[in-house]
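[Q] Does anyone have a clean structure-token version of this?
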Amino acid sequence: MRMFSRVILVAIIGVLSLSAGQEPINTRYKNIKTIEYKDFLKQKDNAVVIDVRSEREYEQAHINDALNVPLYKITKEILEKIVAENQDKPLIFYCISEECGMSFQAASIAASYGIKNVLVFEAGFLYFISHSPDQCVYAGNSLSSNFYKDYIMQRLSIAGKIISWDKVAEKANSGYVLINLGNPEYFVEKMDKYVSNYLRYENVRKELKAGNAYILPERRFVLLDNFGREAVWLEDDLIKLNKMDYYYVEGGLKGYFESIKKSR
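[A] Here you go.
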């Protein structure tokens, strides 16, 4: 229980810091080595690549042969088992992007257990899939070299469904429910006038995957996450459940804080 609490605390600290738009993540983990894209390509086949995102994100898309060990499930036993089965191979952790601190948190936890040769692929999954889509898996299928450009990016833009912050108030005033899937503390403190609902991202994904549409309003809602990138992974399930009248907020909470800085 103590170890579980420690992992959750590290994750919460990371999310709060990111949402506040503080210094780059790697400056807070100076003892953790990072690996650049070109070196990662060369070394990944002789390393243990660990995806620390949720099971749902991993199922949607991941780097070929990567293991999925979500941050909140990391334990000393799991990591030691991985090391024992892969002697002398480095552990390379990654998450969604360079703005996500979970890979650094996971590597820091591994290092605290005395595990050597721990690295972080800081650029993250979105960068990798945009540069090497043929070395990724999407919904169980290998991707062609043009997949990311021709499909994923089209889905991220979602035919005009991604709206900027200056359109959020307009949508809220016209009856759309604004749903915060990001950091509740910063959202409530800074944007309470827009608050309609707060839902845990993991719970929403779980319920949608199970076909439970009730987790979201029947129609007309705007989804907000931490960085403007997580919520789009709900798209497939939203379509399956015939949820059509909704939008995503460009840049998420991070985009909101950046817009405030620019306006000052």
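[Q] Thanks! Anything notable?
[A] The longest strand covers residues 48-51.
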